[in-house]
Amino acid sequence: MQAGREMMRKHFFLAPLWQGQVWLDKPPLPSLLYGFLGTVIPIEPEITTRILSLLISVIILLLAYIFYSRVIGNKNIALLSVVITAFIPAFLQRAQIVNVDIFLLLGWMGYVVFFNNFLLGLIFLTISVLSKSLLGFYPPLIFILFFSVRLYLKQISKDEYKKKIMSIILQMVIVSLWFVVMFVFYQNSFWKMHFVESHFKRVAASIESHFGKRTYYIDLLFNELGIFAYLSILGGGLIVYDFIRNKKIDKFFMSLFFVPWFLFLNLTKTKIDWYIYPILFQFAFLASYALIIFKKNRQLLLTLILIIIILYQNVEGNKLFNVRYSSVDENYKMAIYAKENCQKINYLVNSDTRKTYDTLNKMNLTITTTSWWGDNPRIVYYSNRPVNFIYMKDVFSRNMSQIRDECFVAYKQDIDDTINSGNYKVTKKFNDLLLLKLEK
């Protein structure tokens, strides 16, 4: 929300801003929308932004239902897919917090549902690309592959193929104008931060401590879906068997539309939990597809039984509402206090973060923006003050000896003999987090 708030304040809409700096890693759309809600609508931003996340998540579920209903012509399976997805922990979490991933998935699902409508397809492609950059191009690229396979199998004429491909390419070219504008304004800085660091380096290296074994995303999928992950294997097998038997390339491609993204994730070096979010409903659908082995009247009965079980497991004991995705900790309290008592904050990140940053830096596993966030970036938003995150104790000590009329924040264990605090004294404490100001 901080990035969007700065965009609105400075009327700058090309890219997110973070403490006055252009955040060249990311496209602007999610930050801009969250910032708009947080500054224009006279309701607490924590409420309006989360309502937006929830609303987008509901729309995604509706689009998923429409998509899979069309693909297999079976509303029972489509409904069960949506219900399973809605109660997957990662989906629930993303539906209740400020995040970028819901915009990507909204764009993806909208594009596949409205593919045959050039304008609507363009709108949803714009949403996905201006939310997650190159990742947003996934659906049109899969459609290009799909029509190329159909041409190879002589299931589509060359003229029809050319018409489809040119329409897709035109959409991609129009959306790509944002990249052109950004490159014109920021040139090599944009190339380095947006493409080299934020895309290529994330694929080739485990940057910023995002390590994990090769089966990281497979293990995560089973953890998120539980027994339905096993059923998805059965469902996937049934789809392959059906294709071998009937040679229906349309149904086969559309049923497995998002599986290539999951395969690609497993090849990347950077392992992050929320990267799996966009394909959760794909495996929920595969799990639901296992019902195809039953007759339609039994499918309906089994669908209702499974929905009741899912609802019971999540509502029983109030489990659904017991998970909290944010908390009032010492950093939040410090930010609120600093908002009224500081002009600027110099924040020494904790020892674990400093050690990790130093190690990653030596291993060349950091990017330009790694040092922007400290170990708790929300202090910037809630304090509404400039925050200088410091990663070296000697720099923190030197700043204290040279700077006047600014606040210094550090953990108690870091204020030792190596810190020359001078006339700075502790004026506020929240647990082990201390705020020091110049004694007057």
TrEMBL record:
**Entry keyword Transferase:** yes
* Any one GO MF annotation of this record: pentosyltransferase activity
Which InterPro entries did the record assign?
LipidA_mod_glycosyltrf_83
The UniProt keyword set, sorted, is: Cell membrane, Glycosyltransferase, Membrane, Transferase, Transmembrane, Transmembrane helix
Predominant location category: membrane
Protein location: Cell membrane
Gene Ontology CC: plasma membrane
Task: Give a GO biological-process term.
Answer: lipopolysaccharide biosynthetic process
Q: Membrane topology type, per the record?
A: Multi-pass membrane protein
Transmembrane annotation, as ranges: 51-68, 74-92, 104-130, 136-153, 165-186, 225-244, 251-268, 274-292, 299-315
Can you say what this protein is called?
Uncharacterized protein
* Species name: Candidatus Roizmanbacteria bacterium RIFCSPLOWO2_02_FULL_36_11
